[in-house]
Amino acid sequence: MQYKKVTVSIAALMALATAAACSSSKSGNSGNAGKGSTAAGSGSAAPAGVPDPGKQPKSKITAATMTGDCAAFGKYGKYSGKTVTIYTSITEPEISYHINAIKPFENCTGIKVQYQPSKEFEAALKTKVDGGNAPDIALFPQPGLLGTFAQSGKLKPASGAVTTEAEKNWVSSWIGYGTVDNVFFGAPLGANLKSLIWYSPKYFKQYGYTVPTTWDDLIKLSDKMVTDGHKPWCAGVESGDATGWPLTDWMEELMLRKYGPDVYDQWTQHKIPFNDPKVLDVLKTVGSILKNPKYVNAGIGDVKSIATTAFQKGGLPIETGKCMLHAQANFYAANWDKGTKVAEDGDVFAFYEPTMSDKFGKVAEVGGEFVGAFADRPEVEAVQLYLASGEWATAKAKLNAAAHTSGWATANKGVDPSVFIDPIDKLSVQVLTDPKATARFDASDVMPSSVGAGSFWKQMTQWILGNQDDKTTLDKIEASWPK
Question: Which of 160, 198, 236, 386 could cross-link with 309 by S-S, CB 3.0 to 4.6 Å?
Answer without folding.
Answer: 236
